[in-house]
Design brief:
37% of the residues lie in helices and 15% in strands. The protein contains nine helices and seven strands; from the N terminus they run αααβαβαβαβαβααββ. Strands 3-2-1-4-5-7-6 form a seven-stranded mixed β-sheet, sandwiched between helices. It has a single domain, classed as 3-Layer(aba) Sandwich (Rossmann fold). The chain starts with 12 loop residues before the first helix and ends with a strand. With 258 residues, it is α/β, with parallel strands linked by helices.
Length: 258
C-alpha cells in the first residue's frame, strides 16, 4: 500500500523512471506518462539503462580515485546496483547519503537499505542546500572528498531555481578532491513533438522538465575542470560497450573540485 502522503494522481519523475527501467514501484498515472514518451521515443528505455550503467561506471571510477563518500541527490527509487552497493564493492568502507523528497522513494529506499550498510536516505528537497548539507554532514565527513551525484535530476529543475547556482553552492561546500557528476537530458536533436510530449507528461506534476542544450549543461559545472572525455553522450563516457544515440540525448560529465 502506498503511504498516505503519496500523490498518485500526478506522475512522479522517479516512478516514471522506475517504470521505464522495468520496475514495479509505480502507479497507473506514471505508466501512462511513460508510455506517452515511449510512443514517440522508444529509445528512452535504452537511454534510461545507459544512464544507470553510467552511474555504475562513474562510482567505480571515483572509488578508484580514492573517493569513499557519495552524496546522491534526487536519488530516485532503489534498483539493482545502487550507488552504495557499487561503491562498497570497490571499497568496503564507502558511505553514501541518498537525498530525495518523494515519499515513496524514501519509504522504499529506507526499507531497501541494510542498517549496517553505512548508508542512509535523507528526506529533503535538493534545492535546499542548507538542509541537505546539514543532514549529509551528520553521516559524511564533508572535510574529506565527496562524490556529488546529480544523475538524471537537473533537467527536472526549472530555470527559476537556478540549477547552475545550485551546483555551484554544493561544489563550494565540498573539500578539494571532490567530484561533481552530472547527467542531463538534452534538447539537442529532439524534435518539437518530443519536446511538447515531455512538457505534457509533467504538466501539473512536481517536476518542471527543461531540456537544455549541451552548452547550457556544460556551464552548470561553473568552470570546474572536467575529467576526460569531457561532456559527452552518457553512453560514451568511458564506455564498456558501444550504444546508439537516439533523438532524446543525455549528456554526462564529471568535474573535479580543486
Amino acid at each position: 500500500m502506498s503511504p498516505s502522503d503519496v500523490d498518485v494522481d500526478r506522475p512522479s519523475a522517479a516512478r516514471v523512471y522506475d517504470y521505464v527501467l522495468g520496475g514495479k514501484d509505480n502507479h497507473a498515472v506514471d505508466r501512462r506518462a511513460a508510455e506517452m514518451l515511449l510512443e514517440i521515443a522508444p529509445e528512452i528505455r535504452d537511454t534510461a539503462r545507459q544512464n544507470r550503467a553510467f552511474l555504475r561506471r562513474v562510482v567505480r571510477h571515483l572509488a578508484g580515485l580514492g573517493v569513499r563518500q557519495f552524496l546522491d541527490l534526487g536519488a530516485g527509487l532503489p534498483t539493482v546496483e545502487n550507488t552504495h552497493e557499487v561503491a562498497q564493492a570497490a571499497a568496503a568502507d564507502s558511505k553514501t547519503v541518498y537525498v530525495d523528497n518523494d515519499p515513496i522513494v524514501l519509504t522504499h529506499g529506507r526499507a531497501f537499505l541494510d542498517p549496517d550498510s553505512g548508508s542512509t536516505f535523507l528526506s529533503a528537497d535538493i534545492r535546499d542546500t542548507t538542509a541537505v548539507l546539514k543532514g549529509a554532514g551528520e553521516h559524511l565527513d564533508l572535510s574529506e572528498p565527496v562524490g556529488l551525484l546529480f544523475v538524471n535530476v537537473l533537467h527536472l529543475i526549472g530555470d527559476g531555481d537556478d540549477p547552475a547556482g545550485l551546483v555551484a553552492a554544493y561544489a563550494h561546500a565540498l573539500a578539494p578532491g571532490s567530484h561533481v557528476v552530472i547527467t542531463h537530458v538534452s534538447g539537442d536533436g529532439a524534435g518539437s513533438e518530443l519536446r511538447e510530449r515531455i512538457g505534457k507528461v509533467f504538466t501539473g506534476s512536481s517536476a518542471d522538465a527543461r531540456l537544455r542544450t549541451r552548452g547550457e549543461i556544460g556551464r552548470m559545472f561553473g568552470g570546474l575542470p572536467l575529467l576526460e572525455p569531457g561532456l559527452v553522450d552518457v553512453a560514451a563516457w568511458r564506455p564498456e560497450n558501444g550504444a546508439p544515440v537516439g533523438e532524446l540525448r543525455v549528456f554526462a560529465g564529471v568535474a573535479q573540485v580543486p
